Structure formats: C-alpha cells, structure tokens
Amino acid sequence: MAESPDTERTSVSTYLPAYQKVEWESHAEELGMSQSEFVRTMVQAGRKGFDSASEKPTSEGSDPGGNALERRVLELLSTDTYSWDELLDAVSDDIESRLDDAIGELQADNRIRYSGRHDGYVLVEGNDGD
User: Fold this and answer.
1) pTM value?
2) Quick one: how far is CA 11 from the chain centroid?
3) CA-CA distance, 121 to 44, in Å (whole number)?
4) Where is the composition biased (Basic and acidic residues) (predicted)?
C-alpha cells in the first residue's frame, strides 16, 4: 500500500530584492491571493515548466521543450482578440518579467551584480555559474 504524502504545513524563508517583493505583493493583490499563496502557486507553476521541459516527445509534431511562447499566445487569445502589436506587448511584458526575476535571483545568489562603472550587469568574479 502506498504511503500518503506528509501534508503537515511548514515554512520556507527566502531573500529577494525589496523591489521584487513589492512587485510580488502587487501581483498577489491583483490575483486576490495572500503573499504565501502567491509564492506557493508561482513556485508550483514554475516547477511544472521544468517538468515539461524534461519530458520526451510522445508523437511526431509534439513539443518536447514545451513552447512557452505558443502556449502564452493561445492563453491570451482564449480570452480576447489581440492585434499584432497588442500580442507583441503582452508577450514582451512576460519576457521582461522573466528577465527581471532571473536578474533578481542571480543577484541574490551573488552570481551577478550591477556595475555603474560598466553601466550594466557583470559576473561576480570567481562565480561564473560553472
């Protein structure tokens, strides 16, 4: 007989830039969620994305990596009609958000930093991700 998963609640702590917390709070409020519910939901959604990227194709024409752009376009069009420019804005915003999240995580992990001298982001010496 299979053992039931442990459903006891426990906490997880993380550190992120203050601006990112403000964005998460705002997004959670827009969705009518608590911060905890928002973070839990977003982590689970992200994990699903990683799971689908590792799946093997099941038939010719399947999408082994899970084409996120196609899914996003279909998701948008399932609720409304969009012009080319509106679609471009909608998917670009998603890319901007993902880039912002990635930069925040890389900074939190001390893998990159913003350099005024170089007028941009640079790798933290000795931490090139390898």
Assistant:
1) 0.38
2) 21
3) 29
4) 48-58
